[in-house]
Amino acid sequence: MMFQKIVAIQHDIYLALAQQIKLVAAGGNWLAFLAFLPMGIIFGAVHALTPGHSKAVLATYLAGSEAKIGRGLLTSITLSFTHVTIAVLIAVLSLPLVSIALGSVGRAPMLEAISRGLLGLIGAWMLWRALRRGHHHKHEGEAFGVMAGLIPCPLTLFVMTFAISRGVPAAGLLFAGTMMIGVTLTLSVVAILSIVLREQLVRFVEGRPRLFDGITRSIEGLAGAALIALALHEIFLR
């Protein structure tokens, strides 16, 4: 029921956006379109609630990392930016080749395979580090965000393709920018919850050094193994 409501909200906003783009393309008022743009935030936030968008991967990674909330938010922002920007670039630079580049509507199999492969490497690194008592590199979160975000956002691709086909690519870019804010909001909530839950568990065993070390290493190792499993599943079983 909830999923149906989410899909219905997306559908209604997309239809309204299409109408706005048509009006702008026909010489309509840009001010009206700008007034409509905040709907892009809702559109992006709701869209990010649907399956995909690396929510599970993000939660798994942050649960096994040492990232604080600030670093977690930066990771979610990086992921969202890459996720939306990749779709914009595909539409802007490769529109004539979209039907060739995409295996099916809204998908880019090659980019998906690259993204999952890189995430598998991140998982292997986390697992190795857990076994070797390693430390996180301060920029690893941003690298993870880029890798997880390589899969293009299908709705951004639809919006950009529609806007370009109507001769108003600027309208698509503006709406994609507001969508990015919405996606970031949803992924940021996922990031915060993952970090808070991890820190609560760590705080519970903090006074017991051996137990603390064992649990923190186990969390990281399990997160790394989970990322490897997710990557292999996405690459070979889909």
Structural class: mainly alpha
Q: Please outline the major beta sheet.
A: none
- Ends: how far apart? 26 Å
Compute the number of strand runs: 0
Global mean pLDDT: 78
Using the CA coordinates, give the radius of gyration. Answer: 20 Å
What's the shape?
elongated
Low-confidence stretches: 98-106
Order of helices and strands: HHHHHHHHHHH
Strand content: under 5%
Estimate percent helicity.
over 70%
Provide key terms for this protein.
238 residues, mainly alpha, 11 helices, 79% helix, elongated
Short description, anyone?
Helices cover 79% and strands 0% of the residues.
Describe the structure.
- The protein is mainly alpha-helical.
- Helix content is about 80%, strand content about 0%.
- The radius of gyration is 20 Å and the shape is elongated.
- The two termini are about 25 Å apart.
- It has helices at about 1-25, 30-35, 40-45, 55-65, 70-95, 100, 110-130, 140-150, 155-165, 170-205, 210-235.
- α1 runs antiparallel to α3 (about 40-45) and α9 packs antiparallel against α10 (about 170-205).
- About 40% of the residues are buried.
- It has one domain.
